[in-house]
Design a protein that fits this description.
2 copies of one chain form a homodimer.
Chain A: E1 8-10, H1 19-25, H2 35-51, E2 57-62, H3 65-74, E3 82-87, H4 90-101, E4 105-110, H5 119-128, E5 132-138, E6 140-141, E7 146-147, H6 150-160, E8 164-168, H7 180-183, E9 187-191, E10 202-207, H8 209-215, H9 227-234, H10 245-261, H11 263-283, E11 299-303, H12 310-321, E12 323-327, E13 336-340, H13 347-365
Parallel strand pairs in A: 1-12, 3-4, 3-5, 5-8, 8-9
Antiparallel strand pairs in A: 2-10, 6-7, 9-10, 11-13, 12-13
Helix pairs in contact in A: 1-10, 2-10, 3-4, 5-6, 10-11, 11-13, 12-13
Chain lengths: ~375, ~375
């Protein structure tokens, strides 16, 4: 573990954390069942709702983002429920697997890696499934750098069905707009180590009245991820289970900072640095995997020229430039690299990443 | 949130953390899928096994201790499995509830609060249940300050059945001896914020071959807590899901520190400070809830004199002495207070806690 050298960590989360926030992370423990924690929890809960423009319930769970995704499923899906799973990459597939592990009868709508979901496909698939209980999908697929058209997808689901809308927003929330109430999203799942600029360890969810109603009708096994646990304890200003205090301290600060900046500006800031990344990449003649109109504002996927050893590329970029990039996952391994630009990112960090990438690509292909 | 005043935090976890460890907690993020993390993970896994004197598998899960308890259940219990649940307090009841939520047919063996489980009862209960699949219980019940006789209980279970032994060791492990292999424990569950002297956020489990065999035969819904996820990724030096890096940094240090000190000395240190706490409490004429031979070496429960308002007592101790004690839980609310002495505890901190308690008791009863 080499914490001191501070490389330019440009994976799509965990994001590098500014010193002022790391100081909070290193804060002393407090009583998680005492008044200080209660005050922090209530304030954070209100702030989380504000970030999502929602009056729905919102909870903090000590887990990774996958825990939040599982919570969405475990509270709303029971055996043999018909579920439509829209999959544009690794995390969409993971969401489908979770639904299946809970007995869901999952229809997979798969897309080529680098593509977003097609709206007409979604409409016709919803129409073809009787008694559809939920549509589940990834908002921002960090494995490919593609952002699905969340507002439009939600609109279609509402037009065509009564299905619950469960959204994996792990790598989008806090960086890309999500209007939970206006778009009618039942459960949003996200995690602290992404645009929130906190260490990993806290997952967050919002829960609609409709998701609550469903949760009370089903008997799916669950305990740690049970919505009701979080709601019951929130009423007395407590977490149901001992929370990751260190991460909560950071998240408390980040939530407040984001709202003070205003979410409009936070989203604009993410769009600006993403635009900059794409523009600069093109100047280096690097090819971005997805089409421009669905390219993510939190992570950019760039194609590696053929015949380049992806493992060697990543290690050379690290060893020679102290830049840590994301590689491709599953079938994209060795075919792309990824630059994360969530949270507070400077143009210089993007420049450095692209100069490093371009230099190593040229060196290897020589 | 008042992190700076640093009160004498004497709840039974989270424990106060020394500055040198807090510095690690505040360390910068690293790539959790890179070689540095892999090295740390492998070392920590080996160290965790050493702490438990086991060759069983061992995993780190980003969750609270309840997550580890749920993992124990979700991987080994399926619907209608006969489970014997030995309950001596709040956390024993929680373990039973988790097993029931997963469809277990749970027989509850309940004891009065402040008592340990009776060995003859356990034997006769095991004999009376056909096809018993698992015995689940709390090693150290932090809600009452009682430690069950783990070795003896395990011996009886082995003599009388083939049942799996699942142990909630959240508040004992790392402070009170647990010889996983010698005593034949199938799953041990614990959490970072206790004797390990790290912040909350990481749960730990050990998994026996017998537990693995069982896990492969059942179809209980699970994903985040699935043993197999942790094993598959450990093979490539990775966590299945983004881990709480900040807590892992601390735990890495703590595990190494404990082994360098030697577990015998760690356990002795916990016994010594517990003996000191009990001796001093008696000098103040304070009555300890459990019998001496089952009193916990990680937390001491002390009876509050009748007619004392427990809420007022705790707030006065905090406001006048800056000491934060644990209160009673559920039916013990207002009837006891608890002093945590896990991890690195100085006699002065115990003195301060008892002087504060005694002074406020006298003031209130005046």
């Amino acid at each position: 573990m080499n914490q001191k050298s501070n490389p330019n960590l440009r994976i799509p989360g965990p994001v590098p954390i500014p010193e002022e926030i790391l100081d909070l992370v290193g804060g002393q423990m407090i009583n998680h069942r005492g008044p200080e924690y209660a005050e922090m929890l209530h304030k954070m809960t209100d702030n989380l709702k504000s970030v999502f423009f929602t009056k729905n319930d919102a909870y903090f769970i000590t887990a990774s983002g996958t825990g939040a995704m599982e919570s969405a499923i475990a509270n709303t899906i029971e055996e043999n429920d018909n579920v439509l799973s829209i999959i544009i990459g690794v995390f969409g597939e993971r969401f489908a697997e979770i639904a299946e592990s809970y007995g869901g009868n999952v229809t997979r709508l798969n897309y080529d890696l680098g593509k977003a979901a097609d709206l007409d496909d979604i409409r016709s698939n919803i129409r073809s499934i009787n008694n559809l209980k939920a549509v589940i999908f990834t908002h921002n697929e960090s494995s490919t750098g593609v952002t699905n058209k969340l507002e439009e997808i939600c609109q279609i689901i509402h037009e065509e069905s009564e299905a619950l809308i469960l959204v994996d927003a792990v790598s989008s929330a806090g960086g890309i707009p999500i209007l939970v109430d206006e778009w009618g999203i039942d459960v949003v799942a996200t995690a602290s180590q992404k645009s929130w600029v906190a260490p990993p360890g806290i997952a967050m969810i919002t829960v609609s009245k409709k998701a609550w109603e469903r949760s009370k009708k089903i008997k799916t096994p669950k305990y740690y991820f049970d919505f009701q646990q979080y709601e019951d304890y929130l009423q007395i200003g407590q977490p149901p289970f001992t929370p990751s205090l260190s991460v909560m301290y950071a998240l408390d600060f980040s939530l407040e900072k984001m709202l003070n900046e205003s979410m409009i500006k936070v989203f604009k800031r993410h769009k600006d640095i993403a635009d900059y990344t794409r523009k600069k990449a093109k100047e280096f003649n690097l090819e971005i995997l997805p089409d421009e109109d669905v390219a993510s504002n939190t992570v950019t996927s760039i194609k590696l020229p053929k015949n380049i050893d992806g493992v060697k590329f990543l290690s050379e970029v690290k060893n020679k430039f102290n830049v840590i990039l994301g590689g491709g996952q599953k079938s994209l391994t060795g075919k792309i690299f990824r630059i994360g630009h969530m949270g507070w990112v400077e143009k210089e960090e993007i420049d450095e990443s692209l100069i490093a990438s371009n230099t190593i690509i040229r060196q290897i292909t020589k």
